[in-house]
């Protein structure tokens, strides 16, 4: 028994070291990063929104796109085979604003339920070289969203990763979990991008050029994968030279969060299912991050219960927790999620268990279509 506990103890030490390396070497890339204010660029932009049964959200949030303070931009609205009055709402807006273009996607047996097919049609229909993507349930936090995101384009930078958070709901533990998961994901992809290893972005706030899209054959390489119009495409084309990040507050978008665990769980199943198609180096690093987190808590609890070398275990446990809080503080402030720090360990454990459950579920059955 003692030999076994010694093995658990040394494994715990190794896990803490691995976690410390990730926090101190990887995540500090974003923690200590200051966003430079880029020079204003008045480039022609196409804002692309793909909507499926989003009539109400378009009514509520499209005005925040229309009223952007930007000299020249078009809005491409893609109606992806909706069965509500999404198309009618789009047409009402198009009658009022000349810069709105509608792409009405009809049912296609080959690409049924595939958002990438609809997006490809929208991109082809767009007029401008610079493309900015968001969703129908998203709202820019300021009228300078387009200006902030597009300011990061340059001759070399053809891909811009933005941040999209979720609205806060008071006294909702699920809402905190959703926002924590979003914060962690952003820390990961911003930090990896600054390290020269960009691996994903979120379609709620993402920009790239039309030339980049077609030069890389668009979504062809993963068209049959239901999700991944954002992260798989970024994983395919992004590198340290062509990728920039935008995390100024005026460049944020906000989305409506799920209000039931079941609906959020279903959404995350679809999102997580794309990770298996990432490049090998990204899969190895992300697997190491998650597995070291999972093992940290399992091994720590085991050692605390058995009181084996408890004083050293406690010191290592506190060391890791202190590092975590130190590294999370600045990103939480930058991304306006400060309230999550109070219950950070609880949210971490909750998310780890949820992700493990999702992984097991995805092995058993495939997630559904995007809507």
Automatic annotation (TrEMBL):
The organism's place on the tree of life at top rank: Bacteria
GO molecular function, one term: glycosyltransferase activity
Enzyme class: transferase
EC number(s) per entry: 2.4.-.-
Keywords: Glycosyltransferase, Membrane, Transferase, Transmembrane, Transmembrane helix
Gene3D superfamilies named among the record's database cross-references: Spore Coat Polysaccharide Biosynthesis Protein SpsA, Chain A
Regions crossing the membrane: 7-32, 284-304, 310-328, 340-364
Pfam families: Glycos_transf_2
SUPFAM superfamilies: Nucleotide-diphospho-sugar transferases (SSF53448)
Domain Glycosyltransferase 2-like: 46-180
Protein name stated in the entry: Glycosyltransferase
PANTHER family from the UniProt entry: POLY-BETA-1,6-N-ACETYL-D-GLUCOSAMINE SYNTHASE
């Amino acid at each position: 028994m003692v030999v076994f506990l010694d093995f658990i103890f040394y494994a715990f030490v190794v896990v803490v070291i691995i976690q410390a390396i990730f926090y101190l070497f990887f995540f500090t890339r974003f923690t200590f990063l200051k966003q430079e204010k880029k020079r204003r660029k008045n480039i022609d932009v196409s804002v692309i929104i793909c909507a499926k049964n989003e009539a109400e959200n378009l009514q509520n949030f499209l005005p925040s796109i229309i009223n952007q303070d930007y000299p020249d931009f078009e809005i491409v609205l893609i109606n992806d085979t909706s069965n509500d009055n999404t198309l009618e709402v789009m047409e009402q807006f198009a009658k009022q604003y000349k810069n709105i273009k509608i792409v009405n996607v009809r049912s296609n047996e080959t690409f049924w339920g595939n958002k990438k097919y609809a997006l490809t049609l929208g991109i082809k229909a767009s007029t401008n070289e610079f493309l900015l993507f968001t969703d129908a349930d998203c709202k820019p936090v300021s009228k300078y969203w387009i200006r902030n995101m597009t300011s990061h384009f340059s001759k070399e930078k053809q891909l811009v990763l933005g941040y999209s958070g979720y609205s806060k709901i008071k006294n909702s533990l699920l809402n905190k979990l959703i926002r924590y998961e979003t914060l962690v994901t952003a820390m990961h992809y911003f930090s990896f991008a600054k390290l020269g290893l960009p691996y994903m972005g979120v379609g709620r706030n993402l920009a790239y050029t039309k030339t980049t899209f077609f030069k890389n054959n668009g979504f062809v390489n993963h068209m049959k994968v239901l999700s991944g119009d954002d992260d798989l495409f970024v994983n395919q084309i992004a590198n340290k030279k062509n990728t920039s990040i935008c995390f100024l507050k005026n460049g944020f978008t906000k989305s409506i969060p799920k209000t039931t665990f079941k609906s959020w769980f279903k959404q995350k199943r679809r999102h997580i299912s794309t990770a298996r198609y990432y490049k090998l180096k990204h899969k190895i690093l992300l697997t190491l991050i998650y597995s070291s987190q999972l093992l940290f808590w399992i091994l720590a609890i085991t050692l605390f219960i058995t009181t084996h070398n408890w004083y050293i275990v406690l010191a290592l446990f506190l060391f890791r927790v202190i590092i975590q809080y130190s590294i999370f503080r600045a990103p939480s402030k930058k991304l306006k999620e400060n309230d999550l720090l109070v219950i950070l360990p609880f949210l971490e454990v909750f998310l780890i268990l949820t992700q493990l459950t999702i992984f097991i579920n995805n092995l058993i059955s495939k997630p559904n279509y995007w809507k």
